[in-house]
Amino acid sequence: MKWLVMAASLAASPALGHDIFDGSRVDDIVTLARGYGSAALETQPDGSPRIAGRIKGVPYYVFFMNCAEGRACEDLNFYAGFANLKPTLDAINAWNRDKRFGNAYLDSDLDAAIEYDVNLEYGVTRDNLNAAFGVWSVVLDEYTGYIGYKAQ
User: How many Cβ atoms from other residues are within 10 Å of residue 118's Cβ?
Assistant: First the structure.
């Protein structure tokens, strides 16, 4: 019987005691981003946080999305745009067809852009969010090579 009570209490604890991140843990998310390169906390025009970072010299942003007063932001939107790099629509379509992660597109100026979204609505473990940054790092590296971007 004692083991049943112990098992029930473990099942009731969030993620078995793992450190849970949601959109309210902005400083911790910035710290995690710094494990992949430079990262600084900024503010979006609507007052929501954003991270401006660089991975291997490539600039990117992480936008905290769906933020409401008194509530944690629900999503992270990883974004990188590349002014004056204009791949063909066929090349963008090929990327989206052949790659599982990273949504590539041409922005309003027909410049290359890529995004990757992470849902934080009910929280994720530190390991899961770290893995998301790892995926973004790989996506960013592969995409810059694909479009011919040279980091400065």
Answer: 21
